[in-house]
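<purpose> Linking amino acid order to shape
<body> The protein record starts here
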Amino acid sequence: MRAEEEAFLATLTTGSRLFDDAVTNTRAAGLSTLSGDDAFVLHDTYGFPIDLTLEMAAEAGLDVDEGAFRSLMDQQRARAKADAKSRKQGSADHSVYRRLLEAHPPGEFLGYTDLQAAARIVGLLVDGQPVPSAREGDAVEVVLDNTPFYGESGGQQADTGTIRTADGTVRVDDVQLPVPGLRIHRGVVTHGTVGIDSAADAEVDVARRTAIARAHTGTHLVHAGVRNALGPAAAQAGSLNAPGRLRFDFTSPSGAIPTALLMEVEDEVNTILQEDRDVDWYVTTMDRARELGAMMLFGEKYGDKVRVVDMGEYSRELCGGTHVARTGELGMVKVLTEGSIGSGVRRVEALVGLDAFRYLNREHVLVNQLSEQLKTPSEELPERISGIVERLRAAEKELEAVRAREVLSSAGALAEGAEDVGGIALVATRTPEGVGGGDLRSLAGDIRGRLQGRAGVVALFAPDGEKVSFVVATTEAARDRGLAAGDLVKAFAPAVGGRGGGKPDLAQGGGSGVAGIDDAIAALRAEVSRAGG
């Protein structure tokens, strides 16, 4: 039983280790604000939401450089968008696409009703250049006179499938609209050859399209549920509709949605699914759409004619995407997370259909495993785990106290072993692995106290993995000889790839080069020697 609890506690502590390290290094550097870099790494690498980091930092008595974190998040999103855009645009010059569109005006999109259609190849590109034909193994871009394939737009991912001619087959992996009105089917010739003017059979992957349509309909329902809960201020700010999952971004001036309210939204949406309402769509005028109260995306450009997707009085939006025929086809919507992605903008992520059922099944298995390991009924797990966490925190505090006593007990021996450098008593050494900033300062102060009456300098270096924290303390007699702790830090900090500062009597900092501790001590010794000489 105890072994099982210890294993579980180890799992709980893994995710918070990086945060603890960041707090230690921040305090060791004499700072009161956790850096944006640390917050970003916690989020990007370890999945810590910024809200959790802010809460944990507040409990530790620290602020967080939220502005720097937001800037790093913006930079990451910009890089991701640029990378995605470069992949989607392919290798062709846009002038090539425009010439194709001029030669072959937009054909009809048949995909609202047909997932398979007869077509003709009117454009063919290889390496961004027009070609009369392509053979097996070639990566191609195909233009059809009409198509059932949906091109990625409006947050909905592109269709995949196949284009077959009498002489060859193209596996369609992506569909993009590099210029308005032109659908480019990107893929690979998997068999034979395909050429311009060939009759073709275009067939969409039905399972993928249906899963995406369920997600897109789910996004409309979540949008309606969020607005019902928060009011009209919750305006859509972006979305992603992928097979079995959705992402919905919205403005929220009031901040996070309380968990209980989010669950009410989920329950309301699933009630609409259970009612199996019709999902209708129709094309009408913009004025009529406004009269009907259809939701429109702010900043989106619409023509005189618009497409409305209607689920009765619950949801009515302008949308060019594909949807299911009835809400019951979604099966289930399971909200996974809600969090901040920018100032005043929140994001809800959810699973739809079979993916939602599979998720709940995994959660059920996990809860059963925890119940078995902890010998606790599932309904009592929160209380049991809370108790384990409390014991863990108490054990960590006791461990810190034991470590502090052990560290402080070495002060006498270190003071007695002080090195005489030009008449100045120097204690410069590394401590055991993982000594915290508070213990390091206490030890330095204790050693300095034992050197009073002498000109003395104490410098302690605490390694922690590849990082190092350090503290420098000076006696009054040493300061009278021009040895200020802050100045001494400047003399050796570069050796450990760090920085720091403080007052003449006490300074501290941290670095990323633990291998440079010996060089740092040598640099400190040389600086003390110059003062002693």
Remarks:
- The first strand starts at residue 33 and ends at 34.
- The two ends are 64 Å apart (CA to CA).
- The first helix runs from residue 2 to 14.
- Confidence is low (pLDDT under 50) at residues 1-15.
